């Protein structure tokens, strides 16, 4: 439907239904362009909301895909035995389902990896953001990020055939066997250095230049400005980078599966071999266990525990970041 507006001394104009005739008659072409722009904004908004909603739905779907078989597992094995038992032997005749050995192996490799990644990653970020000339920065940052693109299976063999026998045994005289959580953790730390370095460098580069200039004007040198002004201002982004690196370390599979070993035991020393949660999943998920069996459901129980641990890490870190976040 349309309406016809006629004025004295002028020809009649047809306006779309629901449109203010005065606004339309003043500039019809501009009005139509503005209306098309609004349609484009609505389409973009729907696409963005759909993308965000899809990520939430996928997360919920993963959770329920892990939850249903895990509940089947917990109907036969008590949750207390699962979480506090110190013997993990789900495929043996005298089966035992205490997940504590897998948890200790995971924690050892994660902590060792973070002890390597945090100082080296933050050191690289500080240099790139505050000290490196632009030409050097353009060269070093892509080279650093190449480490993130190396397949984790390559890192695993690097730990197995070079770090353990050559670096630890020969160069550092640390007695380790073929498999150890120490070798796995060291290489895991190398792998997540780019995560800490790149995100921390972005956070530090986003700090307003006026804060640096104010610090210099008060007589502070570059190092003091970096540590007392830039670093605290970027601490929320730095914390987020460490949490992301920790989550990646907890969920890493191939490095720990190849270098840490497959011996599920409560690890009391980093020179010992051990099995992680992801290592167990990689070892067991070979199609030999029949769906619905107790051994098959252990995969989902361990996967759900890994999911919950990672989720709790992110929730706690998010709460910390919101408290210390600085907005400029």
Protein described:
By secondary structure, the protein is mainly alpha-helical. The protein has 2 domains: 21-76; 81-324, MetI-like (MetI-like fold). 72% of the residues lie in helices and 4% in strands. It has 13 helices and 4 strands. The strands form 2 sheets. The protein has a two-stranded antiparallel sheet with strand order 1-2. A two-stranded antiparallel sheet has the order 3-4. A hairpin with a 6-residue loop joins strand 3 and strand 4. Helix 4 packs parallel to helix 7 (181-205), helix 5 (134-149) packs antiparallel against helix 7 and helix 8 (209-217) packs antiparallel against helix 9. The longest helix is centred in the first third of the chain and has 49 residues, at 28-76.
SSE blueprint:
Elements: E1 2-5, E2 13-16, H1 21-26, H2 28-76, H3 79-84, E3 88-89, E4 96-97, H4 100-131, H5 134-149, H6 152-171, H7 181-205, H8 209-217, H9 222-233, H10 235-251, H11 254-259, H12 277-284, H13 294-324
Helix segment tally? 13
State the order of secondary-structure elements, H for helix, E for strand: EEHHHEEHHHHHHHHHH
In the CATH hierarchy, the third-tier topology of the largest domain is known as MetI-like fold
Number of domains: 2
Spatially, the strands of the biggest sheet line up as: 1-2
**Shape annotation:** globular
CATH class of the largest domain: Mainly Alpha
At CATH level 2, the architecture of the largest domain is Orthogonal Bundle
Protein structure class: mainly alpha
Instruction: Please tally the β strands and state the result.
Output: 4
């Amino acid at each position: 439907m349309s309406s016809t507006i006629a004025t004295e001394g002028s020809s009649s104009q047809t306006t779309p239904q629901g449109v203010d005739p005065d606004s339309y008659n003043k500039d019809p072409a501009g009005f139509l362009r503005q209306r098309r722009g609004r349609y484009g904004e609505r389409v973009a908004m729907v696409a963005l909301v759909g993308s965000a909603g899809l990520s939430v739905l996928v997360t919920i779907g993963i959770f329920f895909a892990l939850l249903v078989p895990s509940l089947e597992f917990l109907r036969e094995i008590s949750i207390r035995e699962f979480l506090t038992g110190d013997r993990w032997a789900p495929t043996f005749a005298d089966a035992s389902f205490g997940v504590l050995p897998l948890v200790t192996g995971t924690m050892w490799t994660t902590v060792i990896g973070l002890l390597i990644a945090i100082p080296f990653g933050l050191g690289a970020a500080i240099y790139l953001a505050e000290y490196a000339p632009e030409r050097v920065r353009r060269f070093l940052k892509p080279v650093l990020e190449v480490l993130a693109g190396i397949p984790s299976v390559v890192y695993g063999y690097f730990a197995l055939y070079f770090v353990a026998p050559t670096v630890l045994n020969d160069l550092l005289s640390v007695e380790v066997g073929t498999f150890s959580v120490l070798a796995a953790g060291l290489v895991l730390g190398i792998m997540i250095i780019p995560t800490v370095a790149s995100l921390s460098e972005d956070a530090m580069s986003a700090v307003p230049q006026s804060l640096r200039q104010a610090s210099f004007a008060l007589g502070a040198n570059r190092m003091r400005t970096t540590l007392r002004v830039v670093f605290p201002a970027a601490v929320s982004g730095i914390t987020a980078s460490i949490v992301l690196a920790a989550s990646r370390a907890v969920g890493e599979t191939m490095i720990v599966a190849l270098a840490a070993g497959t011996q599920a035991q409560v690890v009391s020393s980093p020179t010992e071999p051990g099995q992680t949660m992801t290592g167990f999943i990689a070892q067991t998920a070979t199609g030999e266990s029949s769906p619905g069996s107790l051994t098959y459901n252990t995969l989902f129980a361990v996967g759900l525990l890994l999911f919950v641990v990672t989720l709790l890490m992110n929730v706690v870190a998010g709460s910390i970041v919101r408290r210390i976040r600085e907005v400029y």
